[in-house]
């Protein structure tokens, strides 16, 4: 007798996500990763421009689920009429009663500020697009951290809805006027990499030196775009891959009939990919600047605070006091922070064991590294690797 096993029906899932930018492609990569590990969904994906009107097929879609970037009210209206599970992966948050998975834009703004402060900047600026909620959230978080530490932030926001050439030229002229008004040296956060590229064009045209006069940081880490920039662009790295995996996991649960609450699922950024556009120290104190450079270059060589003190003509007490006043942390905290950042990178980007990583990052052993990492990141190294690694 031959027994036939009935195969479960393959789920049909539509992806309303554009492929024109690095972040969206990261989302799609995370969704693909989840599919390969779990149910083999039948995927429907068509070329979609960011913020475009809903495609004609959406109203008649009779599949099992949808993951969408609900960027405008037109798309939101079409999605509300669907009788299938939907997960939103847009910061616009236009349908509050469905699950929402997004990068943590507040954390991005705070991380960008930290990146500039550890380089000694005291002047800050933000350039964004007021029509995007994620840009507003990044600006608000960046401005709040600047204000909290007693500094000021100069912000500029594009608000172009009219895409006619004369309107675009007017906005470019306004951008140039704003950039030229900034006090140097200054750290500028652009809401995403494409905006940063526009600022670099202004700097090149008007002879502003990057990064010595204006250090520039983008968001999304579009590696091709960042490397094409002159100089190469530093950028905050959002966990787009993990965001896509989380969205797929939630949709999978909903299609299995599980209850999923419509609460925000915010994914922390992975760090900053530092390139030439922010590779500078704006610290006025030459001894502290030299110490920061030494820590940056040797933090994973097993150094301690006494090794740093030997490099500056100051007593340990005076050195630590001046370092804390300028950097907002002790030399020991700075050494540990930079080691943890390197551990984070190696966990995500390599197959090295914990023992190998501890040796490469200057920790005495992998047990001590694990304790320090968990204290800083909230997860043990192995858990962090499983959660954030691109598979």
TrEMBL record:
CDD domains: PBP1_XylR (cd01543). Residues 289-387 form the HTH araC/xylS-type domain. Keywords: DNA-binding, Transcription, Transcription regulation. Coiled coil: none annotated. SMART domains: HTH_ARAC. One of its GO terms (molecular function) is DNA-binding transcription factor activity. Transmembrane segments: none annotated. The keyword Transcription regulation applies. PANTHER family: LACI-RELATED TRANSCRIPTIONAL REPRESSOR (PTHR30146), XYLOSE OPERON REGULATORY PROTEIN (PTHR30146:SF24). This is Xylose operon regulatory protein. It comes from Rhodopirellula baltica SWK14.
